[in-house]
Write the structure tokens for this entry.
Amino acid sequence: MARPSTPGAASGKPQAWDRINWKRAERNVERLQARIVKATQEGRGGKVKALQHLLTRSFSGKALAVRRVTTNRGKGTPGVDGEIWRTPDQKSTAVHELRQRSYRPQPLRRVYIPKSGNKKMRPLSIPVMKDRAMQALYLQALNPIAETTGDKNSYGFRPRRSTADAIEKCFSLLARKRSAQWILEGDIAACFDEISHEFLLRQIPMEKRVLRAWLKAGFMDKSLLHPTEAGTPQGGIASPVLANMALDGLQRALGERFPKGSNNGTAHRVHLVRYADDFIVTGDSKEILETVVKPLVEEFLRKRGLRLSEEKTVITHVEEGFDFLGQTVRKYGGKLLIKPSKKSVHAFLQKVREIIKKYRTVAAGDLVRMLNPVIRGWAQYHRHVVSSASFAFVDHEIWKALWRWALRRHPNKNKHWIKAKYWPAQGSQRWVFAGQFKKADGTKVELRLLRASSIGVRRHARIREDANPFNPSWKGYFATRGHGLRRTNPTRQTARLTGHTATGEYCSQPQARPLGAKPRPESHPGR
């Protein structure tokens, strides 16, 4: 079958899915995205539109969009039409039929999931596969602009950025003796549900007809069609980027009111750290945050159809501490420590106990297999802060839950027998829960429970604020950063990239792994 010779060419008939040259498709899209970045930096709006048009009509862009929605975690969740793209023929046909002419999105399927930490339900709106692919296609042309024009201290839902970057920025702003002492904890009420459609249509640099169709598609709930007059649906691929771009500009507005280098800006130490719709603003006094910063933020949000939650938006002194992204940031006697929040620890232990309670009769190996990913995920998330004591605490609580689980299974056995069966000694480790797991081929292997304290505490190297993964000039930086975080000594790499010493207030201890723990590579930045 014929293969398009240019990134903007579209094939006249479906191309076999297994014959697509994916490396070539990626190069074609990356080349167009780099040109979009350059045109955006030069302020050439007409050129940007032309390049976006070329990318969204290209075979390469369409193929990568279909691949994304058929390989991500939501690939098996259908929309209102019940359709899923599983076979290569379905995928290649989807690429061929991904056309803008006469495109009209279908209503979204509304489902509800529990919110973390309470019994309330969060609405999710699921698009059909074709609409997901169309959103993924247009995001390829929108993301380069969002990364070029976005706030430097915005870290949520952006490639190569993570919560660890946001927390590290908090540390750099609050750790010094002369740092700001007051924090405005901002909470936007129903951000995704209330963003003004009119504002998005004015501000988002993409085809207005397509964007308007997405925003006005409506949703199906219990077989009833509901219109959407505001907001971006939680569950859509494009929603996080649209919300991010709507909130971009807050850092710039604060910078204009408190210019960097001026007496006004330096004296008041006003800085923003934002992760999606969660943000904090630092200040040198409670009065400046109440009388100047908060009204400025409220006016900024009002133009976007948003408002601050009066109940959850508070001004806090750093010595009282505040929770941000699952961590507690607080100064103790002038020393800043960032630890896993009590709410995060409680939610994690509750989840572990629910798993243990639910699976009272499964084999020990099966239970280990279910618990290890949960423990590893939580510990990896909190490994960059002062977490050693929290890790030891959750390990002990998990041991107590498993001990009760074992006693309940064997009420007629003594404790020495139970210990020997479920906590067999192995070398110097005498209290590690273990069990046999039967693999698909019938062979049995011993699985040992992961201890959170075996995940070494390591400093995180914060991403540079101007770094843009779509700009070719930053390619070397990201290659060095990714290689260094995975391969080199994490303490030396962090010191080289950020200038921090190995022993600092952020972690308050040398960044060495616990005795007997194997070194673990850090996850790639932003993943």
Observations:
- Residues 146 and 245 are 6 Å apart (CA to CA).
- DSSP finds 19 helices and 13 strands in the chain.
